[in-house]
Specification:
Elements: E1 27-31, H1 36-56, E2 58-59, E3 70-71, E4 83-84, E5 104-110, E6 116-124, E7 131-135, E8 150-156, E9 168-176, H2 178-182, E10 189-194, E11 197-200, E12 206-210, H3 212-216, E13 220-223, E14 230-235, E15 254-259, E16 261-265, E17 270-277, E18 289-295, E19 300-306, E20 309-311, E21 321-325, H4 329-339
Length: 349
Amino acid sequence: MKRSLGVLAVGLLTAGLVAAPAGASSVTTDPLASSQATAVEVATFWLADGGANLANATPYNVQVAVDNVAPTGGGTTPDTKPGNSTPMPPLNPGEGGADTPTTWGKVFFVGADGQPHWCTGTAVQAQYRNLVATAGHCVYDTQRFDATLDKWVFVPGYSDGTAPWGLYVGRQVYGHYDFPTYGDYDRDYAFVNVYSGVVSSNSGGLTNFGRLVDNVGGQGLAWNQPRDSLVDVFGYPAGAHPDGKRPYTGETLESSSGRTTSAMVPSLKAEELAAVDSPFTGEGSLGSSWVLRYDKSSGRGHLNGITISVADTDGNLRYDTSLSPYFDGELAQVYSAASAQWSGSILPA
């Protein structure tokens, strides 16, 4: 899809959320499925034939690993005061086909090669309960100029071609202007507004399933947090280590934990990344969420990182480090803009 780039000055988060840091930020917004008719076509593409395209999708393998990760001397510097928004529990926890709703899932799309692929995504609290966070290059197509990835959807709790908590078609993406424009991986993040969910009906059509965060809950967001923060990483790694071994299948949610440090990766034009020790392989785990102050009993905390690549820093042919943009006040402003975007349903009520 063609992008139209714009620069928005965003001041405050929407009602019910914490105020965003003051100041202007470069926010770009682009349509994904901009009409209900298009969204129905997208949902049908993924759910038809028993979810065959979901089941046949492969993990996205664009920019999954990097070399020459270096620590930054002074580390990342917060640009404003620390802040956060509040995680939310599901309102309809008994509506899905799984025992426990989950904010984590897979984002599916058709890549530049014309084939279905997936990354990891996370439901995040927003005013209209309709927001998904993932890596920027799991929405913006870095292999085609001025394009977004096609047929973009989110499936929380994805399992074996099924959507136990619904399938949510992406309507609009919000990101930082510097990523799609200049390829600045310090800004490789995206927030996608999704239409209300749908599932396959007994007749083979589509049935409404309600809003994303109502169904599965939403993680909060935290920005300008100190280095050496303890985070839990959640994702669906599926690729091989450099030694060829594949410890993960991509079929189940995996987790790891560690403390964040600062890093730079010259090959990505990235000078202010966060790094965390993690054994995840890159394919499948792109878009994995780094959760600060994770509460195991509720399954929620504050999103404070998104995996954009992995690295083998000690040269033993095993990936040991995940990398994320540092979540600063400019990211908070992108989130603020996305939080205020209504999306609605793709079917009549």
